[in-house]
Structure formats: C-alpha cells, structure tokens
Write a structure and sequence with these properties.
Elements lengths: L1 H22 L2 E3 L6 E5 L1 H19 L9 E6 L2 E4 L10 E4 L1 E4 L4 E5 L17 H21 L8 H15 L2 H8 L16 H6 L1 H13 L3 H9 L13
Parallel strand pairs: 2-3, 3-7
Antiparallel strand pairs: 1-2, 4-5, 6-7
Helix pairs in contact: 2-3, 3-4, 4-7
The chain binds zinc ion (ZN).
C-alpha cells in the first residue's frame, strides 16, 4: 500500500515535471556560466547553436570567449523610437534587439508567427529567425571584444558590422535571396557613407552594401580596423 502510494506520488511528480517542461520557459546556459537563455527547449537549442556559430566565426581570427549574455525569447519585441518620450505610441516593433548596458537580447520566439517587420521583404521563417538571432549575438560578441570602447563606435557602424557578418554566416540560399533584392549594389565607395542617415533611409539596402564592402577585401582586417576606429567615421549623433 505504501509502495503503491509512493509509486503514484512519483508518477504524479514525473507527470508534473513533463507538463512543466513542455509549457514553462527553460533557463539554460549553453554549457557556459556567462550565458542564460530564457525560452522553450527548442529556442534554447537554437540559441546555443547560433552562439556557437558566431563564436566560431570570430574565433577563426581571434581568441574570443563567450560574452556575458541573456537571451529572452518574447512573443513581441519593441524598441523605443529615438528621442521620444515614454509613450507606448513611440515603441517600434522589431524582430530583435541587443542592449549592451544589460547584456541582453530580446528576440521574437518561434511561436511569434508573422511579424510586421519583414527583413529584406522576405518571409519570416525558421532560417530568417535564426539569422536575426545571430545578428543580435554578433552585437554581443563585438561588445565583448570592444569592452568600454563599444559605446564609442557610431550606431551605423555597429549595424554595418553586425549585418556584414550576419549575411556572411547565412546559409547559401538565404544569402542569395537577400542579395537578389539589390543585385546592382556593389558596396560603399567611401566609409563615410556608413552613417546614420544612409542607414535610416533603407536599412535593408544598407546591410547589403555593408556586406559587399566587407567581403571585397580582407574580412578580418576590416573588422579589426573598424573596431580600432581606424576608418574615417561620421557620427551623425554628434553633429549640431
Ligand atoms: Zn543590429
């Protein structure tokens, strides 16, 4: 009788654990103490794979360690429009965001379905969601490499580097689909064109131009030179 009760209790606990595992967010760390993933098991696996790919990319030329990072999968992600007051109307829906001050990525979860923002006008599928997550992780790894110099790099340069590496990491078919949107784009003729105005006019085109610029020479040298502020840079936020 006692044994039967214990079995029943154990069965109940196991059932509860299985129920919870399938319905509650899982907290994990990709085997790294500095990393936290808040999401379903599937999202957790995806985030760890994206982190490994991005770290592998940077490790090919550098001894980059895993950054301090929390990835939060959300049903919707918003960023505050620049210079706006605290108002829900000023919040813009995005696919993902990275905040260097809190080492945190907010990213659309796999169950988010369609999104109002369609990067490069392409469908929001698994490959695109994974690629956008890699984009945000690239920001985090660059923040890790640059340390307290990170905030000094103009925002447009941060986006240029993240997009260039993101597109370089894409599976071939997705990269071809993205580049096909701007077949005549050959890249920036001058690094002063990597500025907030050009970025804001058309972020999708800007990203392809950044990729073309990045891949027409020595990629590792381009990253090193940009993170060392050795290019001519125009920071629109500092203009009067
Ligand atoms: Zn970005």
């Amino acid at each position: 009788m006692v044994a039967t009760c214990r079995c029943a209790l154990r069965l109940l606990l196991v059932s509860w654990a299985i129920l919870c595992a399938s319905s509650l967010p899982v907290l994990a760390d990709c085997g790294r103490t500095s990393v936290r993933i808040v999401g379903t098991l599937e999202e957790q696996v995806s985030a760890c794979q994206a982190l490994d790919e991005v770290l592998g990319y940077f490790r090919a030329n550098d001894s980059t360690s895993a950054p301090e990072l929390t990835v939060n999968f959300q049903p919707a992600v918003f960023v505050r429009a620049g210079g706006s007051a605290i108002s829900t109307n000023a919040l813009l829906p995005v696919c993902g965001s990275y905040r260097a001050t809190t080492h945190e990525i907010q990213i659309l979860g796999s169950a988010a379905g369609h999104t109002t923002r369609r990067p490069w006008g392409l469908d929001w599928g698994a490959a695109m969601a994974f690629s956008v997550l890699e984009h945000e992780i690239i920001h985090a790894v660059i923040a890790q490499i640059m340390g307290d110099q990170y905030e000094k790099l103009p925002h447009a340069w941060h986006e240029a580097l993240a997009y260039a590496v993101q597109i370089d990491l894409m599976p071939n078919q997705l990269r071809e689909d993205v580049l096909a949107r701007y077949p005549a784009e050959e890249g920036f003729s001058n690094t002063l064109q990597i500025n907030e105005l050009v970025y804001g006019l058309d972020p999708d085109r800007f990203s392809v131009a950044a990729y073309r610029t990045y891949t027409r020479g020595d990629k590792a040298e381009f990253l090193r030179t940009a993170m060392g502020f050795e290019f001519e840079m125009l920071d629109m936020s500092l203009l009067p």
